[in-house]
């Protein structure tokens, strides 16, 4: 019997994000997931370093890697559509849950318990791991904000409203770790490569 889980994951690079927007460069969910993983790791390190925390930063990174894998099956539903009304949000959640179960079923039965918490945190995670998902959710929003900045830097005004909304969404989380990232790391995304090299 063939196990399809990892061949399905390889399709993450085929699913593009920001479907309703004019992109100067397409971003797929594989790229987004890597960036989210790195940002989640960073937020956890900030938490441990500056705010007296003791969380597993490497586990945060792993959760970031897997946080959008259901979109292999569902596609990336644009945020304005996903949140248009409660009925659509509820229906999409049901589709997402079905996609999670389908992906888990593609693993050997003996391995499924290891992967369920990565795909279904609301069902299979400890309280400690649920706490880590806060960093992943903040990292996901930061990744969206960074994409908006990158598009603005190329002269694409299509992302200006999304940039403002993304920044407000990060601030609304009231996470000191995300605020620290916004203050200390985010400004350099406005720099050119030459400017970054000069300031290194």
Task: Explain what this protein looks like in three dimensions.
Helices cover 66% and strands 0% of the residues. The chain contains twelve helices and no strands. Helix 2 crosses helix 9 and helix 9 packs antiparallel against helix 10.
Q: Please identify the structural class as seen in this structure.
A: mainly alpha
Q: Could you state the order of secondary-structure elements as H and E?
A: HHHHHHHHHHHH
Largest sheet: none
Total strand segments: 0
The proportion of residues forming helix, as a percent range, comes to 55-70%
Strand content: under 5%
Task: Return residue spans where pLDDT drops below 50 for at least 5 consecutive residues.
Answer: none
**Radius of gyration over alpha carbons?**
18 Å
**Contiguous helical run count:** 12
Termini separation comes to: 52 Å
Q: Outline, from the CA principal axes?
A: globular
Average of pLDDT? 92
